[in-house]
């Protein structure tokens, strides 16, 4: 990804990420959360 | 046990018959004295007659049968096994039938299967459990209802027209309430994708990561350490005792320790234990909240923790704040948008200042090699520099730049003194671990030169014979032949040292290359080597001072491609 676009996540995005983090027994990295957001909208 | 008195029992018949009945009853009480009061006591009529004869009393089978008839409330006649029996109880009452009620026994309940239910019982909902092997994102995503192709198709349809799906769900709900429905099979309910979920397909990874950090970083439900995230409530807590033992252990070892070591040695969690990674995160997250006692001094891959009263890493010849001030000029050379870890290797020519203090500058090249601070306001990072030629690994402290001090790396005194000279070329190579680096120098045939040293006690420069076996650039070597002006010269005081022009003018004089028309001349390399004895200069900084001099003291030498001249008396 080389594009640069300002972005703000919605409350639903945050809840989705928190559900992701909660469902994992170990800590998740930011890269993993970014990947999860991409998979969600793909 | 209650003793029954036969005289209390009322018996019918004549006096002789009553006496006979009482004798017979005494016989019954004798046999049943240890029996329950209402338990039946049985005698054959023939046995009773025999007893009466044996005890000198008169009685026949007829008389016995008669007394039983007349005292039917006390005796009972029974026929069994071809014999006539007289039955009574210790309480003097006719026995009652005590056969147990077997219509609802425990045995029967166990042995008789329950009838098959008419309707299938509802399937038990499985209890949700965390899978211990659930450690990769791929695994998490697989279980996170990404669905199969049909699900995705369904979701696309939902996203396209949410109202149709709402009506579909309503229809299903109404159908579910109808009594004649038989379906009990599990059903997957697809929640419509939130219409306000953000389309991130056109956003770069870096921007998306920044947005994730910005939002989650403000959410109190989430615990963050470095680049990792976890639900705050699920992060194990450390007791006061744990914190004290961690602090004591670091002090005992007299050096910063990594989270791996602390979790294993202090918290006693084995590296192969399933909760090891969880405890590592917990240790890092919890210690980061204990600002008074602990300081994070690590990188993402090598998470060192320090306490306040550890012995310092590196030189004690000059204060850390003074070194930072010396390197202040580097602040202007660092890029506004640092590209951390963007290069894998760098080469560096060691200056006298660096050699004497055992340090390296945090210049743009070094910044591009090393990692960024992992935590906000992180001031230092402890790195490991491995020197395969010496089979030694050094703990090196990286001091990040502050708004008014430059950055540098400390702790290489021993390596420099034992192997190198000022002017030597070293290379530093990154590894996959962002806290570990390989440092090498080019070995050469042993040579001996009279090289510059600073006599610490007298604060004077001297030349001493020095043997070394590393490759070095001749133009950067501070030997007596090239720089005779250093011999026995006193080090500049701090006030003079703070002025770059003063230091450079002294470098010209110490080079001592007098020009015919007066003044001194020197190549840029010679000036760079000689100026870096008093304070650090980068090549860019040195050239900017030489080229930007407005006093006219310094000028480019027209006869040499990269040389300068200096006319004394013009620098204040």
Write the layout of secondary structure elements.
The complex is a heterodimer of chains A (42) and B (572).
Chain A: H1 11-23, E1 28-29, H2 30-41
Chain B: H1 15-31, E1 40-44, H2 45-54, H3 61-70, E2 76-80, E3 83-89, H4 106-111, H5 137-143, H6 149-160, H7 162-177, H8 205-216, E4 222-225, E5 228-231, H9 240-253, E6 257-258, H10 259-265, H11 276-288, E7 294-296, E8 304-307, H12 320-326, H13 330-333, E9 345-349, H14 352-357, E10 359-361, H15 364-369, E11 380-387, E12 392-399, E13 408-410, H16 413-419, E14 425-430, E15 436-441, E16 443-455, E17 460-470, H17 494-497, H18 500-511, E18 520-523, H19 524-531, H20 539-547, E19 554-556, E20 563-566
Helix pairs in contact in B: 1-3, 6-7, 10-11, 18-19
What do these coordinates show?
The complex is a heterodimer of chains A (42) and B (572). Chain A has 42 residues and is mainly alpha-helical. Chain A has helices spanning 11-23, 30-41; one strand at residues 28-29. The longest helix of chain A has 13 residues, at 11-23. With 572 residues, chain B is α+β, with helices and mostly antiparallel strands. Chain B has 20 helices and 20 strands. Chain B has helices spanning 15-31, 45-54, 61-70, 106-111, 137-143, 149-160, 162-177, 205-216, 240-253, 259-265, 276-288, 320-326, 330-333, 352-357, 364-369, 413-419, 494-497, 500-511, 524-531, 539-547, and strands spanning 40-44, 76-80, 83-89, 222-225, 228-231, 257-258, 294-296, 304-307, 345-349, 359-361, 380-387, 392-399, 408-410, 425-430, 436-441, 443-455, 460-470, 520-523, 554-556, 563-566. Chain B has a 7-stranded mixed β-sheet with strand order 9-14-15-11-12-13-10. The longest helix of chain B has 17 residues, at 15-31. At the A-B interface, α1, β1 and α2 of A face α5, α8, β5 and α11 of B. β1 of chain A pairs antiparallel with β5 of chain B, so a sheet runs across the interface.
Key terms:
heterodimer; A: 42 residues; mainly alpha; 2 helices; B: 572 residues; alpha+beta; three-stranded antiparallel beta sheet; 20 helices
């Amino acid at each position: 990804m080389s594009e640069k676009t300002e972005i703000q996540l919605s409350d639903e995005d945050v809840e989705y990420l928190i559900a992701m983090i909660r469902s994992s027994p170990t800590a998740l990295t930011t890269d993993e959360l970014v990947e999860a957001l991409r998979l969600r909208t793909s | 046990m209650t003793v029954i008195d036969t005289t209390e029992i009322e018996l019918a018949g004549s006096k002789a018959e009553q006496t006979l009945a009482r004798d017979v009853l005494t016989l019954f009480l004798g046999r049943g004295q240890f029996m329950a009061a209402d338990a039946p006591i049985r005698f054959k009529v023939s046995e009773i007659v025999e007893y009466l004869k044996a005890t000198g009393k008169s009685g026949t089978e007829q008389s016995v049968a008669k007394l039983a008839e007349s005292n039917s409330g006390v005796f009972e006649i029974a026929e069994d096994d071809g014999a006539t029996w007289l039955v009574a109880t210790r309480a003097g009452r006719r026995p009652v039938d005590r056969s147990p009620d077997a219509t609802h026994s425990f045995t029967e309940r166990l042995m008789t299967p329950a009838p098959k239910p008419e309707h299938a019982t509802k399937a038990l909902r499985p209890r949700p459990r965390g899978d211990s092997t659930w450690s990769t994102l791929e695994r998490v995503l697989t279980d996170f209802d990404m669905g199969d192709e049909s699900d995705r198709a369904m979701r696309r349809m939902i996203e396209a027209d949410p109202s149709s799906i709402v009506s579909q769900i309503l229809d299903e709900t109404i159908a579910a309430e109808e009594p004649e429905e038989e379906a009990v099979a599990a059903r997957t309910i697809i929640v419509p994708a939130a219409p306000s979920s953000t389309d991130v397909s056109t956003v770069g990874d870096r921007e998306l990561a920044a947005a994730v950090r910005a939002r989650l970083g403000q959410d109190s439900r989430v615990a963050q350490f470095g680049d990792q995230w976890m639900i705050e409530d699920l992060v194990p807590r450390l007791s006061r005792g744990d914190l004290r033992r961690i602090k004591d252990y670091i002090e005992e070892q007299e050096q910063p320790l990594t989270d791996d070591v602390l979790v294993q040695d202090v918290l006693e969690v084995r590296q192969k234990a399933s909760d090891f990674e969880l405890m590592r995160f917990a240790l890092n997250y919890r210690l980061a909240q204990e600002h008074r006692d602990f300081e994070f001094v690590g990188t993402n891959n090598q998470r060192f923790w320090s306490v306040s009263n550890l012995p310092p890493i590196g030189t004690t010849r000059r204060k850390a704040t003074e070194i930072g001030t010396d390197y202040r000029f580097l602040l202007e050379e660092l890029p506004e948008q640092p590209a951390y870890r963007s290069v894998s290797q760098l080469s560096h020519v060691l200056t006298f200042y660096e050699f004497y203090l055992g340090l390296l500058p945090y210049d743009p090249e070094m910044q591009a090699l090393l990692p960024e601070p992992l935590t906000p306001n992180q001031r230092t990072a402890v790195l490991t520099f491995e020197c395969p030629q010496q089979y030694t690994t050094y703990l090196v402290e990286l001091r990040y730049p502050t708004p008014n001090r430059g950055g540098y790396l400390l702790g290489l005194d021993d390596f420099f003194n034992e192997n190198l000279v000022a002017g030597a070329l070293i290379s530093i190579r990154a590894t996959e671990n962002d806290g570990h680096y390989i440092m090498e120098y080019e070995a050469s045939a042993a040579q001996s030169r009279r090289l510059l040293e600073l006599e610490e006690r007298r604060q004077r420069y001297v030349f001493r014979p020095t043997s070394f076996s590393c490759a070095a650039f001749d133009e950067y070597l501070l030997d007596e032949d090239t720089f005779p002006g250093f011999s026995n010269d006193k080090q500049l005081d701090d006030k003079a040292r703070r002025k770059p022009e003063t230091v450079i003018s002294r470098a010209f004089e110490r080079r001592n290359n007098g020009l015919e028309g007066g003044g001194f001349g020197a190549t840029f390399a010679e000036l760079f080597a000689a100026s870096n004895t008093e304070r650090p200069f980068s090549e860019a900084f040195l050239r900017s001072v030489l080229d930007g001099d407005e006093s006219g003291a310094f000028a480019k030498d027209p006869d040499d491609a990269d040389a300068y001249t200096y006319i004394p008396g013009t620098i204040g």
